[in-house]
Amino acid sequence: MRIIIVGLGKVGLALTAMLSREGHDLVVVDCDPVVLQNTQETFDVIGADGNGAALGVLREAGAEFADLIIAVTGADEINLLSCVTAKKLGCAHTIARVRNPEYVKQLSLLKEELGLSMVINPEDSAAREISHILQFPSFIKRESFAKGRVEIVGLKIRQGCTIIGKPLSELYRESKVKVLVCAVEREDEVFIPDGNFVIRAGDKIHVTAETHNLAGLIKYLGIPMQKVRDVVLIGGSKIAFYLARRLIVAGISVKIIEKEYERCVKLSEQLPRALVINGDGCAQKLLDEEINRKADAVVALLNIDEANLVVSMYLSGLGVPIIVAKIDRTEYMDVYKNFGLESIISPKGIICNDVLQYVRALCNSAESSVITLYRLVNDQVEALEFRAAKDTRYLGVPLAKAPIRKGVLIACLKRGSTIIFPSGDDSIQLGDTVIAVTSGERTIGELNDIYH
To answer: DSSP strand E in 117-188: where?
Structure first.
């Protein structure tokens, strides 16, 4: 596909790297000639210097012939204008980043009236994912499929867990909870396991389960259940606003620590039910006074990764039960985990997954194109959702006899209102929702790609 990316900030560069790896023809647009030059040299893409909302710049970028424009500058208005102008020039599909909370209520109207294909909001998406984690704090990661009926959750297996030393077949037999372990992270290795795989202490497992079975899974594994009632947000960013709003609706007490006084005033006006404290979230004395052991969970949302890392380490020493940290530099993910940070959120990573899902669906005319896509285990594993269509191969053939590629696991089937965690005797039927997990490097854009 021919894709134009307007804006080479954190999100724009991440999208450039991802879509370049996927083999698309990219044109990148930015006002900073140095950033533009570095991006061209790093990713071997074409560059256009200037304002991405300007007609001349978009023509230079080839908007008339582009399949997709993705506008992710720091200004919502420029993003919207870039998409509208590119659409008028003939660009088929448009994606705009819109972050201002004041525009949230009119996003549906904006999409319809401006002809946008997709609107992305990294901060709101990150807030949604953090709120999911806080709902079940035992989970490192939590992703939803099949319209919320099925989830893939990440769990760390600690000493004393009932499944240690046992093959996964015993988990399925003894737990009386319908689940399927679809990926295991062990030190630097990643496995797509079968029923004979034996779990060790320290493993991080990714489990497919129906949403209503998650509590039963935690109980069987012997992982303590903890209800979150009081949450402290360090940093009053847009993510903090979106997250606080979600938590307050859920009946959770929220405290926000923000250094800038003007921002504190605005948050107090927007969130009257939250306690907003004007102070430095990195100051040890303030952390001791405002957090200590009263907080059930703390979310580090400062603008600097290193600050979030240091604060999270200190809070861990204070004994805070649940710590979530926002991280932008995902290339250092292993470093963060070595410091004990398990629940890490990357707003740009979430948005990249959403865009990649959309792009792969555009690339495939088949009815069984990808519906949902998530990347797990530091992007080494993909979990994808499809719908079986008339052109899907091997319908009705038992999975044990179908030529499924090595490294691909059918994690779940949804047939009507029935959820199936399949064995080799089960088969994919027309109309099924299929959740597949793969550790392979080959791109999977539609359901037939899982076969040889």
So the answer is: 118-120, 141-145, 150-156, 179-186
At 4, give phi and psi (nearest 5°).
-105, 130
pLDDT tens for the chain, 452 residues long, are 999 999 999 999 999 999 999 899 999 999 999 999 999 999 989 999 999 999 999 999 999 999 999 999 999 999 999 999 999 999 999 999 998 888 877 877 778 888 899 999 999 999 999 998 898 887 878 888 988 899 999 988 988 888 899 999 888 888 888 899 999 999 888 999 988 999 999 999 999 999 888 888 888 888 877 789 999 999 999 999 999 999 999 999 999 999 999 999 999 999 999 999 999 999 999 998 888 667 899 999 999 999 999 999 999 888 888 899 999 887 777 777 777 777 889 998 889 988 998 998 888 766 767 888 888 887 889 999 999 999 999 999 999 999 999 889 999 999 999 999 998 999 999 999 999 999 866 678 889 999 98
Tokens for 67? 């399949």
The CA-to-CA distance between both ends of the chain, in Å, stands at: 24
Q: Are 314 and 284 contacting, i.e. CB atoms less than 8 angstroms apart?
A: yes
* 320: helix, strand or coil: coil
Structure tokens at 64: 């008339």
Q: Write down the residue that tokens 């004041």 correspond to.
A: 102
Q: At what angle do helices 10-21 and 33-43 cross, to 10 degrees?
A: 20
Which stretches does DSSP call E strand in 109-264? 118-120, 141-145, 150-156, 179-186, 189-191, 204-210, 230-234, 253-258
Q: Quick one: which H or E segment has residue 70?
A: strand 68-71
Q: At what angle do helices 347-363 and 10-21 cross, to 10 degrees?
A: 40
DSSP element (H, E) containing 173: helix 168-174
Cβ–Cβ under 8 Å, residues 216 and 177: yes
Closest CA to 158 of 219, 112, 202: 202
User: Counting beta carbons within 10 angstroms of the beta carbon of residue 101, is it exposed (0 to 12), middle (13 to 18) or buried (19 or more)?
Assistant: middle
Burial class of residue 170, CB neighbours in 10 A (0-12, 13-18, 19+): middle
